[in-house]
C-alpha cells in the first residue's frame, strides 16, 4: 500500500499542504540565499523547439463538441503506434545517447527570501471500532506538518530531471529518464505520494520515487544506490529510485497527469493512482492512455479524432479535476479542449474561443479549467455551464495557489501575473529578470511559494507571493517544464482546503 502525503495518526490526517519550518535557506550548488520572509502558506512552460507560437487568434466561440466512448483493449492496439514495453530499470542495459548541447546564457543572482512557516494545529480522535482500526471517518482536507516539498524540473536536452528541495533550494538528486538516454523530457506530474512521472517528447514515461525508503534494492549492490545531487547522475542500471519506465515511440508525447487514486475511508489513504498520457502518431488522431501508477503497465487507450490545433505537438498539456477526469488541450490558436471521463472513458471536445490561443492548462479549486493563452487573452472554462470567460493577460504555464490566485508565466516577458481566480482581476505583474529566455513553467510549492521556470540557461525562480522577493536556483541545464511540477496542482484541484 502506498504511503501518501496524508499520514494517519489516530484518525487525524496530516496534509503536506501546510505547516513547515523556516530560517535561512541552505546554500547549495547553483542556489543563492538571502533575507527571510513568510508568504501566505498553502493551507490544508513555449517549448524548446523550433520557433515560438506566432499564429494570430482564430477559431470560433462555438462550444459544441462530440461525445464518444471508444475504449480499446491495449492488447489489440496497433503495435506500430502504441505498443508500450515496460522496462525494469534495474535489469536494463542502456545505451545512452548524447543529448543536444544546451544553450547556457548567463544568469543573475537575485535578492533572496526564505520561508518562515508556522505549524498549524491538528485535531485528533482516538475511539476504536470493532474492526481494530479507528472508528471515525477520516477527513482528507485537514492540515498538518510538511514532510517534504520537492519540485521536479526537466533538463530537456540533457535527458534528465532535477529534484529540488523547495525549502532549501538544494538540488538533492538528478536522474536519467530513459534507458537509451535523450528523449527530450518536458512535462512532469507529481502524485500524492510525492512521486513523479515524466513524459519525454520523443516517447516514454518514467516514474521516480520521492522517498529513498520506497526505492528497491535491485542492482546486486548492497544498500540503495541513488543520485545524491546535480553532479551524481547514476547509470540507468545502477539507479534504484527509478520505479519503472514504459517505452513509447510517438510522433509527439507531451501531456501527462496523475490521478489521486481511490480514497480508502478505512486506511485514510489514496490507493491505485493512475497516470494519464496524451500523444499523437499521425497529427490527426489523439491517443489518450491510462497507465497503472504502480507498475507502468498500460490499462486503457482511446483514440480521439477530429480535434484542431498544432497537431504535431498535441495534446499539449493535461490536468485532472475533482473526479479525476483528465483535461487536455491542443496547442496554439484554434486548439481544442478535451475532457476524458475517468469512470467510463467517454470524452467531450470543446472548441476554445478564437481569442484564446492555448498553451498551459490547470484546474482550480472551484473546478474551472484555465488555459494560459499566449495571444492577449487567458481563458477560464466553466464545465457546468459550458461557458468561457477571458482575462487580458497573455501567458504560458499557469497554476492556482491556496489564496485563490492564478499565477501565469508571462509570454514574451520575464515575469508572472497574479489573477484573482474568482473575479478575473489582474492583481499584479512581477518582473523576474533573473530568468533567461522566457518564463514558461509555473508551480506552487507546499510552503506557498510560486516557482517559475525559464526555457533557457539554468534558472528557476522562487517568488514570495506577498513580498515579491525572489530566490533563484541556477544549476539547471536548459530546463523545460510547465506542468504540475510539485503536486500542488493535483492536491488543490481534487482536495482543496
Q: What is CATH's topology name? A: Methylamine Dehydrogenase, Chain H
Number of helices: 2
**Low-pLDDT residue spans:** 1-29, 31-38, 40-135
Distance between the termini: 25 Å
What is the CATH H-level superfamily? YVTN repeat-like/Quinoprotein amine dehydrogenase
> Helical percent range?
under 10%
CATH class descriptor = Mainly Beta
**Strand arrangement across the biggest beta sheet:** 3-21-20-19-18
Rg, please? 21 Å
Strand content: 25-35%
Quaternary state of this entry equals single chain
For the record, the count of structural domains works out to: 1
What gross morphology would you assign? globular
Query: Could you tell me the mean pLDDT?
Result: 80
Provide a compact summary of the structure.
This protein is mainly beta. It has helices at residues 79-82, 488-494, and strands at residues 7-9, 12-14, 67-68, 85-87, 150-155, 160-165, 171-176, 185-190, 196-200, 205-208, 242-247, 252-258, 262-264, 269-271, 274-280, 286-292, 298-304, 317-320, 326-329, 336-340, 347-351, 358-363, 369-373, 378-382, 387-391, 395-400, 405-410, 415-420, 426-431, 439-444, 450-454, 460-463, 470-473.
Amino acid at each position: 500500500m502506498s504511503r501518501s502525503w496524508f499520514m494517519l495518526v489516530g484518525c487525524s490526517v496530516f496534509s503536506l499542504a501546510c505547516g513547515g519550518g523556516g530560517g535561512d535557506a541552505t546554500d547549495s550548488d547553483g542556489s543563492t540565499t538571502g533575507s527571510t520572509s513568510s508568504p501566505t502558506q498553502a493551507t490544508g512552460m513555449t517549448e524548446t523547439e523550433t520557433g515560438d507560437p506566432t499564429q494570430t487568434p482564430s477559431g470560433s466561440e462555438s462550444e459544441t463538441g462530440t461525445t464518444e466512448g471508444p475504449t480499446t483493449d491495449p492488447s489489440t492496439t496497433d503495435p506500430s503506434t502504441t505498443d508500450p514495453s515496460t522496462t525494469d530499470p534495474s535489469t536494463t542495459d542502456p545505451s545512452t545517447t548524447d543529448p543536444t548541447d544546451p544553450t547556457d546564457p548567463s544568469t543573475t543572482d537575485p535578492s533572496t527570501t526564505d520561508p518562515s512557516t508556522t505549524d498549524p494545529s491538528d485535531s485528533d480522535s482516538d475511539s476504536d471500532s470493532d474492526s481494530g482500526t479507528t472508528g471515525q471517518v477520516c477527513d482528507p482536507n485537514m492540515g498538518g506538518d510538511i514532510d517534504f516539498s520537492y519540485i521536479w524540473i526537466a533538463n530537456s536536452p540533457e535527458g534528465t530531471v532535477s529534484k529540488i528541495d523547495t525549502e532549501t533550494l538544494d538540488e538533492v538528486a538528478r536522474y536519467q529518464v530513459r534507458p537509451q538516454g535523450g528523449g527530450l523530457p518536458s512535462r512532469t506530474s507529481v502524485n500524492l505520494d510525492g512521486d513523479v512521472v515524466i513524459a519525454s517528447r520523443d516517447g516514454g514515461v518514467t516514474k521516480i520515487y520521492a522517498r529513498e525508503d520506497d526505492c528497491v534494492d535491485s542492482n546486486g549492490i548492497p544498500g540503495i544506490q541513488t543520485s545524491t545531487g546535480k553532479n551524481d547522475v547514476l547509470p540507468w542500471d545502477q539507479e534504484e529510485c527509478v520505479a519503472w519506465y514504459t517505452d513509447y515511440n510517438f510522433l509527439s508525447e507531451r501531456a501527462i497527469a496523475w490521478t489521486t487514486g481511490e480514497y480508502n475511508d478505512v486506511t485514510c489513504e489514496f490507493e491505485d493512482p493512475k497516470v494519464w498520457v496524451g500523444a499523437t502518431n499521425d497529427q490527426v488522431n489523439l491517443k489518450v492512455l491510462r497507465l497503472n501508477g504502480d507498475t507502468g503497465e498500460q490499462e486503457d487507450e482511446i483514440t480521439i479524432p477530429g480535434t484542431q490545433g498544432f497537431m504535431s505537438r498535441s495534446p499539449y498539456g493535461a490536468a485532472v479535476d475533482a473526479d479525476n477526469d483528465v483535461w487536455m488541450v491542443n496547442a496554439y490558436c484554434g486548439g481544442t479542449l478535451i475532457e476524458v471521463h475517468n469512470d467510463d472513458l467517454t470524452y467531450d471536445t470543446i472548441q476554445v474561443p478564437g481569442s484564446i490561443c492555448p498553451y498551459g492548462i490547470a484546474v482550480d479549486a472551484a473546478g474551472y479549467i484555465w488555459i494560459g493563452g499566449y495571444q492577449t487573452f487567458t481563458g477560464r472554462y466553466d464545465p457546468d455551464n459550458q461557458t468561457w470567460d477571458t482575462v487580458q493577460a497573455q501567458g504560458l504555464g499557469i497554476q492556482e495557489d491556496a489564496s485563490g490566485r492564478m499565477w501565469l508565466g508571462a509570454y514574451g516577458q520575464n515575469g508572472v501575473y497574479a489573477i484573482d481566480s474568482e473575479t478575473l482581476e489582474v492583481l499584479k505583474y512581477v518582473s523576474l529578470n533573473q530568468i533567461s529566455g522566457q518564463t514558461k513553467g509555473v508551480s506552487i510549492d507546499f510552503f506557498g511559494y510560486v516557482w517559475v521556470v525559464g526555457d533557457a540557461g539554468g534558472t528557476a525562480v522562487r517568488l514570495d507571493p506577498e513580498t515579491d522577493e525572489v530566490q533563484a536556483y541556477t544549476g539547471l541545464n536548459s530546463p523545460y517544464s510547465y506542468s504540475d511540477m510539485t503536486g500542488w496542482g493535483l492536491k488543490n484541484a481534487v482536495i482543496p482546503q
